[in-house]
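Q: Two folds, back to back.
A: First:
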Amino acid sequence: MLDEALNKCADNNNYTIYTSMCKAQRILMRSYSPVCSISGGSDSDIVLDLIHKVDEDGKVKYFWIDTGLEYSATKEHLDFLEQKYGITIERVKPDKPIPTCVKEYGVPFLSKYVSEQMMRLQAHGFQWEDEPLEVLLQKYPRCKTALQWWCGERYSDKDGIQKISRFSIYRNRFLKEFIMANPPDFPISNKCCEYSKKKPAKRIIKEHDADLDITGIRQSEGGIRSAAYKTCFSECKSKGCNTFRSVFWYTDGDKRDYEEMFGVTHSRCYTEYGLRRTGCVGCPFSRHITEELAIIEEHEPNLYKAAVHIFGKSYEYTAKYRAFVKEMKAKEKEKKKHDRLLSLNGTSACDIGGDGGACTADRSTVSADNNAPEIAKGA
């Protein structure tokens, strides 16, 4: 089966898929107890197909975590995958389902990283102040990491204050201005991911005494998660479980090639509903959440009601933020256009009275200074 798959890759000149299969085979040969997380999403479908092709001994254990907020179409798809590949996908309960996490800790907002930093700031009673980092560190000495995110700066005794860009609030345009103008009146948290996904995954690894965890993270997806890794394989330094990201180097084009070459079938979430992603229903981290909610309401109305009940405050806050960004961008564009016109006309804000009278006062001063010698001469 593997040789046939490799020949297809060679015939289609896709080196990325070819090498990923070879690497997967080598890594699996060295593993005695591998586990593979299945989500029911499009990347996960490719991971499963690839791993099944190279797993000649059938030693990989597959599992799926039920977060408490999953599509019916995803659950149906898991049944289909089990029949297609002749495997068993273990259904795993979360440490805490999403509704419980949100009730206990708060709602997610914008992204995992943003939610984490805002959660930390809220825990220290932060008042969303626009103060220098050194001032805020004195006021909130036990909240350094989140304050650095808020200020877009890093502090160390050795180097002092330094600008940061990658993991600062300024990665999201106008977010700081928005929060200061509209402080959240509800708790924000990323704990739902921790308790409904990360902790149960670690539990499964421990229960199976796994030495290899196979996931579907792709570098081209971007975001904090993919940026945390430089390669497809991470070796555990101490005795534990290594991680293999089997489709790490796949682009969207590679995904399409794989689907066409090997006839990968995705769930109805994609083929019928028209969703771009699966996972937790109505997750506020989605960039297309408004579009997704409309689709969910049409195809799975009960889940739509549940998502709105659980994440409603986050949806409202996100919509307000995006409207704020749109307004700020429009103002920014208008200002640039205005400045460009002034530049082309050889004029400035002073020439059109846009200076609040400061330039007029300057001219008066200049005129007085120019007349001063004449007055002196006349005297």
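A: Second:
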Amino acid sequence: MTDRKIRMGMIGGGPGAFIGAVHRMAANLDGDIELVSGCFSSDPKKSKQAGKELHLSALRVYASYKDMIRLEKNLPDNERIDFVSIVTPNHLHFEPAKLALENGFHVVLDKPMTLTLKEANQLKEIALKNDRLICLTHTYTGYPMIKQARQMIKKGLFGTIRRIVVEYPQGWLSTALENTDQKQAAWRTDPKRSGIAGAMGDIGTHAFNLAEYVSGLSTTKICADLNTVVKGRKLDDDGAVLLKFDNGASGVLFATQIAAGEENNIKLRVYGEKGGVEWKQEDANSLLVKWLNKPTEIYRTGNDYLNSFAKHNTRTPAGHPEGYLEAFANLYRNFALTLKAKLNNKKAKAESLDFPNADDGIRGMAFIENVVASSKSKEKWLDFKV
């Protein structure tokens, strides 16, 4: 019987990184996970500095991810890490994840899963072969009201889903920020590090994932229009996609990073025969539930009338707002509960198993490749290929 904290190692997330600190706070929030080792930078000095700031043993802070995985594997069972959290730029996802999985470690991976669809499929095969878990951090699926919406749709309360509208506007790349010393802008607009898509790979994948996750539907056809608005930029910074789903529903997705004045307001609307739901991140604790023949209802986080999935992912009573870090932490908590059940040869509860996995990662990479192909094509509709 394993009744202890799950031990975590981190690759990336050192000085100057944004998302690494978010991962660490999220993993630590519920007390289920302990960060015990890491290779926080490709620069050994920076990695050592990060380890010192995080109060880790110097013996568990490594100069390279290869050293980390090799040396952690050789530690006793009661010391070595259980999983690796990889928070590097996109082009550095595949090799560390592959090595970790092959050496018996579970993996938490920042999205998008890899640089290419081929790599994503390979990672899934390696994970299955080695009986390891993969969690992909599509943060927005961790919000309680998103869980509520998904279960209401799953129960058929709105009838057949007909229309999905999802949008993700940001404005932070309205200028050529990558030409300054802004590290986050630099790698996100560099095809060698980001991949074949810019805004669509960075935030469009979140919107796509949310649309499929909440609706329970799968995309079958797309028609995409990608734009590069800022002069000299090498990747798309704006775009829109028409979607067809496997039940016949239609959808619209737009993602942009040149909407001046916008911050991070991802918004989702799903409409069925009898009603629908509306949610936006900037008011994440509210879910609008709309009906054909009665007034709109407002569901709020932390109330007893919510379903078990929403309650499972809520920590505080109604009126005490939970936000981005808590949603992020829900992914880590559910992953940790699932991993702990696996270590004890038990099956985790359905609520704990509800986190993005390798299949979601593969569909995200397929979205990127299909959208880019569609935007370049003269055909109106392309089949969504995975």
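Q: And?
A: The CA atoms of residues 174 and 258 lie 4 Å apart.
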